[in-house]
Write a structure and sequence with these properties.
- The structure is a single chain.
- This protein is of the alpha+beta class.
- The protein folds into 2 domains: 301 residues, 2-Layer Sandwich (BirA Bifunctional Protein, domain 2); 88 residues, Anticodon-binding domain (Rossmann fold), CATH 3.40.50.
- It contains 12 helices and 21 strands.
- Strands 3, 7, 8, 9, 10, 11, 12, 13 and 16 form a 9-stranded mixed sheet that branches. Strands 18-17-19-20-21 form a 5-stranded mixed sheet, with helices on both faces. It has a 3-stranded antiparallel sheet with strand order 4-6-5.
- Helix 2 packs antiparallel against helix 5.
Length: 415
């Protein structure tokens, strides 16, 4: 990707009405465009980050026999009324609308009822269970507050998975396997050491749930941690949780955190409410056991920015960065341009994603943009480097650059 062809531009300042650091930096770096509070468009660079996060999540869900699909965003009143979750007193984040014939519809904030309704057409007997399906979809929630940038949006991308089982034991086993899969996801993204499985309220889903909370000063939750015992409790259920844990509140560390995922065990409650059953080995109709598992794709992106950004800008972990290398050409001498062009071609041939800054702007602007964008590796080609048959290299997290050979650069990039 040549920078001169990129339609986005970096900005010196963020919009005056944007208070969240993650959104300020992402807007300035050209990754997102703010439409209104809690609603953002994602540019080609921002989309690359989201797709990288989705790839990690997809790989881990596929390992757990998840089957990818995509549900509809339009939801009928009848589907959700069977469980009372159409009622605004039960779920207060619905965006609701009507067809021209006045039929009431909702814009999906989740899909438990919808997936159960669909799966009853395919799950008839115990031979059809267990089954697990997931999707990446834009969710819409009429949040009262939307002031944390992409960490709390009214419109956001989410991975939601639903597993159906014939027994509570089978569900519990799979539930634990997804806990482990989520741990792998956050480790691969780069926030694993600060992300904890957390005992929490189920909210509009069920009585209790497990959240995946990342320690983050910009987070909206308060977490109580026991790092040695790997115990984490959301403040909202602290008193109830302490009754079941062999610890005192004095032993716990109080921190701010951001929720990056959650999982809910519904048991057979949804099936009972909706009248959805399967035929067991004895020919008896039994309710289906259900669990759901969510990862906030856009929220994870915002949390990463909040956690790792420095005074110069964003710092992307390599696993989700939009590109791996920021290649800057300094000067317009033929030998310099030819060398930069050749290196750009060589890196791409080696499978390395590159943003080639071929713009006619000052070197200082190129370096500042490289830091603001948070690209993991910066490589500079100039008259000096050509004369010394080297390239200037600096990792985003390092303070100073150094001269290395092309071969050494490939080694650094693991080519």
């Amino acid at each position: 990707m040549r920078y001169s062809k990129l339609f986005t531009k970096t900005l010196k300042d963020a919009p005056a009405d944007e208070v969240a650091k993650n959104a300020q930096l992402l807007i300035r770096a050209g990754f997102i465009y703010k439409v209104m509070a809690g609603v953002y468009a994602y540019t080609p660079l921002g989309l690359r980050v989201l797709e990288n996060i989705k790839t990690i999540v997809r790989e881990e869900m596929n390992k757990e026999d998840g089957q990818e699909l995509i549900m509809t965003n339009l939801q009928t009143k009848e589907t959700w009324s069977t469980t009372s979750r159409w009622d605004d007193e039960v779920v207060d984040v619905w965006f609701k609308t009507k067809l021209k014939d006045q039929t009431e519809l909702g814009l999906a904030w989740s899909h438990e009822e919808a997936i159960m309704e669909m799966m009853q057409q395919y799950v008839k007997s115990y031979k059809d269970l267990p089954v697990s399906v997931y999707q990446f979809q834009t969710k819409l929630r009429n949040e009262l507050r939307a002031k944390s940038g992409i960490m709390r949006g009214r419109e956001f991308v989410m991975k939601d998975m639903y597993s159906l089982h014939e027994s509570p034991e089978d569900l519990a086993k799979y539930y634990e396997s997804i806990k482990e899969a989520y741990t792998r996801i956050y480790e691969r993204i780069g926030i694993g050491k600060d992300t904890f499985v957390t005992f929490a309220s189920g909210g509009a889903f069920t009585k209790f749930s497990h959240e995946f909370q990342t320690v983050c000063d910009a987070g909206e939750d308060v977490l109580y941690l026991h790092r040695e015992k790997n115990i984490a409790v959301n403040e909202e259920v602290l008193e109830d949780a302490l009754k079941d844990l062999d610890i005192n509140v004095e032993e716990l560390e109080k921190v701010k955190s951001a929720e990056v995922g959650n999982i809910f065990n519904f048991g057979d409650g949804k099936s009972e409410e909706m009248g959805i059953t399967f035929t067991d080995t004895n020919g008896v109709q039994k309710p289906i056991y259900l669990a759901s598992y969510g990862v906030g794709i856009t929220r994870v992106m915002g949390v990463v920015v909040e956690k790792f950004a420095d005074e110069r800008g964003i710092v992307w972990p390599e696993s989700i960065a939009p590109v791996q290398v920021y290649l800057a050409c300094i000067g317009d001498a033929a030998k310099v341009v030819n060398k930069a062009d050749q290196l750009y071609s060589d890196l791409r041939f080696a499978g390395i994603e590159v943003l080639y800054d071929d713009r006619d702007v000052r070197p200082g602007q190129k370096f500042a943009d490289a830091d603001l964008m948070g690209i993991p590796h910066r490589v500079v080609i100039s008259q000096k480097t050509v004369e010394q048959e080297a390239v200037e290299y600096k990792a985003r997290t390092e303070e100073t650059a150094k001269l290395i050979t092309d071969e050494q650069l490939m080694q650094v990039l693991h080519v």
